[in-house]
């Protein structure tokens, strides 16, 4: 029996979860651990089953051992004892399948019917494709032809990014999927939308009278979104060299976070209304009018050899499976403008890169300075107020204000008041994939990207990619372990701003007041 502590809402309806790509990295690191956490928290119905699907042969025992190891290694809960494990593992089966062979799908259908009968599952089927995107179309067709979509319950398709390579290929992929699944049956994953603090942006904005009235171009001078990573491309050089930072992180995670910051309050808290508001932001992004404008507003970088402490880090072109003459960007920073009444004139600066000094995702909202000609600003150099949303790996928020230094006549010092969610004892935030698998099984598509969002994001990004394709050698190298090309700093300096230090590595004179619950 699952342990029902922390149960905060209904469990999912009984369903079979098919994990295509069950022997792959995503399944091992994220999906199996997420399913176990949901089970442990009582969020999975007792009548659930998981069928792992991949090409490699595996016995049921071997597969269950793989799942066990993945949970031991990557899950935030540990298996308590054999009895818990055996009850959980019973729900797992494995099917070796050549995904182009229709006969295999017919066998899968037979196995599924047996599993459904055994656990009393009412024909609900969730197909999670942790596969290369070029396979999404053919798997969908074969699911239909092999009879897998003929059961009496619901059928949902969950797919990983990247959704296409550009607008044209995304369109083609979408048309293929639409021949089999309706838009409301397709759940496109952007795992950033499953992160606690990204979801918290809505609450911080719309549940606090402090913020919402100020959330516009009258009071905010700029917004900065940083998604920095210390890792290089690791073993993903083959994929990454064709993708680059713009497609890997920009088109999806970064623009999605931007929409959460910039969107209008939805009229109702239902998935379609929320997604309508997000797509309006994406449609309001000012397209770069020319290649010159791309050059002036977007910085493109690639890491060269560098150091982290004493460790020498190879340059991108020396990485495994990367073309030694590659011009793929591992960093980009852009100035993005949102042309609507709320945001006209407020730059959103976004940056992401591999091999930067720290792993962090943060959103900084910088408020406009107090007027220079009145009262305190005549005498003091006041720092602007900031609201910082820390998404990952630290989770929390802090606000930076100005206050009088105790005991002084009128000396002013900046004060950062922090609420650290991830520092709380006993709070173990759910992983993004737990939330997303749970939502997909519940039929809640709020934190999945709708086709029109994907298309609008590609339309914006394609303009940058086209300009870069014209000038492939126009790329700034930065040393691995540094904060990226100097041009990214100039991008803000031209507007009179600078990137705020991330990860609480604030200037020395800031007094920190740290708190958890
Ligand atoms: C993935 C990208 O979508 O997000 C990776 O493909 C990147 O390149 C990863 O490393 C970052 O995710 P997170 O959750 O670790 O910040």
UniProtKB/TrEMBL annotation:
- Tell me which EC number(s) this protein carries: 1.1.1.49
Question: Domain Glucose-6-phosphate dehydrogenase NAD-binding, which positions?
Answer: 19-200
Q: Name one Pfam family in it.
A: G6PD_N
Q: In which pathway does it act?
A: Carbohydrate degradation; pentose phosphate pathway; D-ribulose 5-phosphate from D-glucose 6-phosphate (oxidative stage): step 1/3
Q: Which InterPro entries match?
A: G6P_DH, G6P_DH_AS, G6P_DH_C, G6P_DH_NAD-bd, NAD(P)-bd_dom_sf
Q: Which residues bind NADP(+)?
A: 21-28, 55, 98-99, 161
| Catalytic residues identified in the record | 253 (proton acceptor)
Q: Which residues form the Glucose-6-phosphate dehydrogenase C-terminal domain?
A: 203-500
Q: Can you tell which superkingdom this protein's organism belongs to?
A: Bacteria
Q: Which SUPFAM superfamilies match?
A: Glyceraldehyde-3-phosphate dehydrogenase-like, C-terminal domain (SSF55347), NAD(P)-binding Rossmann-fold domains (SSF51735)
What is the top EC class of this enzyme, as a single word? Answer: oxidoreductase
The entry's substrate-binding residues are: 191, 195, 229, 248, 354, 359
Keyword annotations for this protein?
A: Carbohydrate metabolism, Glucose metabolism, NADP, Oxidoreductase
A GO molecular function term, named singly, is:
glucose-6-phosphate dehydrogenase activity
Reaction(s) catalysed by this chain's protein: D-glucose 6-phosphate + NADP(+) = 6-phospho-D-glucono-1,5-lactone + NADPH + H(+)
HAMAP family reported in the protein's UniProt record: G6PD (MF_00966)
Tell me the function of this protein: Catalyzes the oxidation of glucose 6-phosphate to 6-phosphogluconolactone.
**Which family does the similarity line name?**
Belongs to the glucose-6-phosphate dehydrogenase family.
Q: This chain belongs to which protein, by name? A: Glucose-6-phosphate 1-dehydrogenase
Q: Which organism is it from?
A: Paenibacillus turicensis
């Amino acid at each position: 029996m699952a342990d029902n502590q922390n149960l905060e809402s209904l469990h999912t309806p009984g369903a079979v979860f098919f994990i295509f790509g069950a022997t792959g990295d995503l399944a091992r690191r994220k999906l199996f651990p997420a399913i176990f956490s949901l089970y442990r928290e009582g969020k999975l119905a007792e009548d659930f089953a998981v069928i792992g699907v991949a090409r490699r042969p595996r016995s049921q025992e071997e597969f269950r051992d793989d799942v066990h190891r993945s949970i031991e290694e990557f899950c935030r809960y540990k298996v308590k004892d054999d009895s818990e494990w055996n009850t959980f593992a019973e729900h797992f089966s494995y099917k070796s399948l050549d995904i182009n062979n229709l006969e295999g799908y017919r066998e899968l259908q037979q196995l599924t019917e047996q599993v459904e009968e055994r656990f009393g599952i009412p024909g609900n089927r969730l197909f999670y494709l942790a596969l290369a995107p070029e396979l999404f179309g053919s798997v969908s067709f074969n699911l239909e032809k092999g009879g897998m979509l003929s059961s009496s319950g619901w059928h949902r398709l969950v797919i990983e990014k990247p959704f296409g390579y550009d607008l044209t290929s995304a369109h083609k992929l979408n048309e293929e999927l639409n021949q089999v699944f309706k838009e409301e049956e397709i759940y496109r994953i952007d795992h950033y939308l499953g992160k606690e603090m990204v979801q918290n942006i809505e609450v911080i904005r719309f549940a606090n009278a402090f913020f919402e009235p100020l959330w516009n171009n009258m009071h905010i001078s700029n917004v900065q979104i940083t998604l920095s990573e210390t890792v290089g491309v690791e073993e993903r050089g083959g994929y990454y060299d064709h993708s680059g930072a713009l497609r890997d992180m920009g088109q999806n995670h970064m623009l999605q976070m931007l929409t959460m910051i910039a969107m209008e309050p939805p009229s109702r808290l239902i998935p379609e209304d929320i997604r309508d508001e997000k797509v309006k932001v994406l449609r309001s992004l000012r397209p770069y009018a020319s290649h010159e404008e791309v050059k002036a507003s977007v910085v493109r970088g690639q890491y060269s050899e560098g150091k982290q402490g004493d460790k020498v880090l190879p340059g991108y072109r020396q990485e495994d499976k990367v073309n030694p003459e590659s011009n793929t960007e591992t960093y980009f920073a852009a100035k993005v403008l949102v042309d609507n009444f709320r945001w006209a004139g407020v730059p959103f600066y976004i940056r992401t890169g591999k091999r930067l000094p720290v792993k962090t995702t943060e959103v900084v909202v910088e408020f406009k300075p107090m007027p220079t000609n009145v009262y305190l600003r005549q005498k003091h150099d006041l720092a602007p107020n900031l609201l910082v949303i820390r998404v990952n790996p630290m989770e929390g928020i802090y606000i930076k204000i100005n206050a009088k230094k105790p005991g002084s006549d009128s000396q002013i010092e900046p004060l950062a008041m922090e609420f650290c969610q991830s520092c709380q004892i006993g709070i173990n935030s759910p992983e993004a994939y737990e939330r997303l698998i749970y939502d997909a099984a519940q039929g809640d598509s709020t934190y999945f990207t709708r086709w029109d969002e994907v298309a609008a994001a590609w339309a914006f990004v394609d303009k940058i990619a086209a300009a870069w394709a014209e000038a492939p050698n126009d790329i700034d190298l930065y040393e691995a372990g540094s904060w990226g090309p100097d041009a990214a700093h100039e991008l803000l300096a031209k507007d009179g701003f600078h990137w705020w230090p991330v990860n609480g590595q604030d200037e020395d004179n800031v007094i920190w007041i740290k708190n958890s619950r």
